[in-house]
Amino acid sequence: MNKVFTFNRVTFIGFGLINSSLARIFKLKSLSKEICAYSRRKETRLKINDLNIVDQVYDDLKKSVENSDLIILGVPVGSMGDIVKEFSSSIKPGAIVTDVGSVKKGIIDSILPILSKDVHFVPGHPIAGTENSGPEAGFADLFKGRWCILTPNENTSKKAVETVKNIWQEAGMKVTLMDADYHDRVLAITSHIPHLVAYSIVGTVTELEDQLKTEVIKYSAGGFRDFTRIAASDPIMWRDVFLNNSEAVLEMLGRFIEDLTALQKSIRWQDGEVLEELFVKTRDIRKGIISEEQD
Amino acid sequence: MNKVFTFNRVTFIGFGLINSSLARIFKLKSLSKEICAYSRRKETRLKINDLNIVDQVYDDLKKSVENSDLIILGVPVGSMGDIVKEFSSSIKPGAIVTDVGSVKKGIIDSILPILSKDVHFVPGHPIAGTENSGPEAGFADLFKGRWCILTPNENTSKKAVETVKNIWQEAGMKVTLMDADYHDRVLAITSHIPHLVAYSIVGTVTELEDQLKTEVIKYSAGGFRDFTRIAASDPIMWRDVFLNNSEAVLEMLGRFIEDLTALQKSIRWQDGEVLEELFVKTRDIRKGIISEEQD
Q1: CA torsion, ordered A167, A170, A176, A180, to nearest 10 deg
Q2: Statement: residue B93 has pLDDT above 60
Q3: Among A17, A228, A273, the residue to mutate for chain B (most B Cβ within 10 A)
Q4: What percent of chain B has pLDDT over 70?
Q5: C-alpha A9, offset from chain centre
Q6: Considering only CA atoms, which of A85, A165, A172 is closest in space to residue A122?
Q7: Among the residues of chain A, which ranges form H helices?
């Protein structure tokens, strides 16, 4: 595929797993003449310099975005609004702002009113990740074959949406458009609740008496081991996800706790039939996912 | 390592993921002159024949164990007692009986009273598995580097324990001894509760309205995808695990639901501090597991 776009100057705000992975792709594929990054923390800025991906590393937000035609927000969901407020007056007219946050409605509500009318905001969520965080955790293949969901509204420039779509396709993603609210409900189930449950169960283990805890860590296989991997994800990022998608998360969490409590009762009453029926039914969902991946 | 043991005749009762994997090792390493298998289902017996691992496949339980010096039980936890009852009179004096069940106390209570005094029962649990089941799902490397827990009591023959230990070491496992009750508590946390939670959350999804369910399956990444893999495990095996380890499972499940409900409250009250504190703490457990694996 020939590149149908190149930027003069792109700025990555925040340089964690997602942004640092995408920056690698910008570098490898020469998608921008100049690649810039801003990070609040000195330690992170030093790490970014060491990686040799970025041309300019800034500790000044406003300067970092000046003259950029593309600004990519990769900071925790709860910080997005404040950060954009700080640099919004420095954005070049006609520039595109996009983000990589796991929650869409809350971000749109906090960012859209701040931006001037001649700046295009295309909210986005590349569904990819590992349990690792920080600039050094990134890698160019992170996005390959995964979905990216963009949640523009009816006023968003079609051309800006197309440009952001092209970027994620260059990263190897399948891109789809979705309503922001709907995105947040889907992600509450596919990602937010599983993370919350994993955090919670690993938290339960941290409160066990010492000897039992030691044995649990030693003999953890299958199930719990997978949960600890999920529960090792970035704490600030996930705190913000739950605070900013609380409505959808609480709705699904309520349903889940109901179902779990029913299971608890089935075990107490030794009702094998109910257990077996559920365990057979859940296999079909897995089959659905596997066949989706083979499409 | 030189083999310090060989059997004349070994019988695998049941030929699912674990037993069929172990049988592959018996075959590869010539650990027994004759390898036999029993399966209740004709379909499974035909599959076993096709695999070319086993010398004799039986549909008659008693005949399958006659003259065997080692009998390995790999059937669902809830069937162990009935099956042993059916063939116990045919076991050769001095033979060793062992099992691979994920619950130990319940199995011991159902099997030990049935066996005659001159038969050695060494309860065992190789902690290894995948979400796949059946004879064709097995592979010789399944056990490599994993733990196997044996739960003999003070009357179990030391020599028999040593023999079973050698078998699992040949399979590449690290072997440890543990009290049966304690094993069941540890496994309730490391394996049974995570499976129950995964089954439950995938079950919650099966009850969503159709469109949302379709999108959830389509965009499932990270968290939920891992859960569906866990929740695709063998239904009968897991039904029996929960019915036979209900005490430890219910105790831990109670703690977990309490902790999850507290988290629910923190989200409702937008208490970011509590969330962050937990999410930082859970990372340490992961570090513990990683460093344990590097030992």
Answers
A1: -30
A2: yes
A3: A228
A4: 97
A5: 24
A6: A165
A7: 17-28, 42-51, 61-65, 80-87, 105-111, 158-170, 180-187, 193-206, 210-219, 222-230, 235-244, 246-268, 272-294
Minimal C-alpha gap between A230 and chain B (Å): 7
What tokens were used for B233? 């495990």
Token pair in block for residue B181: 């009750």
d(CA A128, CA A144): 9
User: Chain centroid to CA B155: how far?
Assistant: 24
Instruction: Select the residue of A78, A222, A254 nearest B191 (Cβ to Cβ).
Output: A222
- Tell me if residue A10 falls in helix, strand or coil: strand
Distance between CA atoms of A5 and B213, rounded to whole angstroms? 36
Q: Is there a contact between B125 and B176 (Cβ–Cβ < 8 Å)?
A: no
Please give the Cα distance from B2 to B5 (Å, whole number): 9
- Nearest-angstrom CA–CA distance, B225 and A132: 18
DSSP 8-state class, residue A66: T
pLDDT in tens, A13-48: 999 999 999 999 999 999 999 999 999 999 999 999
What's the CA gap between A292 and A290, in Å, rounded? 5
Please give the angle made by the CA atoms of A100, A26 and A134, to the nearest 5 degrees.
Answer: 50
Find, in chain A, the residue whose alpha carbon is nearest to that of B209. A186
Window 230-259 of B: residues touching A by CB (8 A cutoff) are 230-233, 235-236, 238-240, 242-243, 246, 249-250, 252-257, 259
Which residue from A minimizes the CA distance to B235? A279
Asked whether the CA dihedral A179, A185, A191, A192 is positive or negative, the reply is positive
| Token pair of A147 as six digits | 């979905």
Token pair for A202: 């690993």
Detail the DSSP E strand segments found in A130-190. 147-150, 174-177
Smallest CA–CA distance, residue A269 to chain B, in Å, is 9
Each residue's pLDDT tens digit, B246-295: 999 999 999 999 999 999 999 999 999 999 999 999 988 888 877 776 65
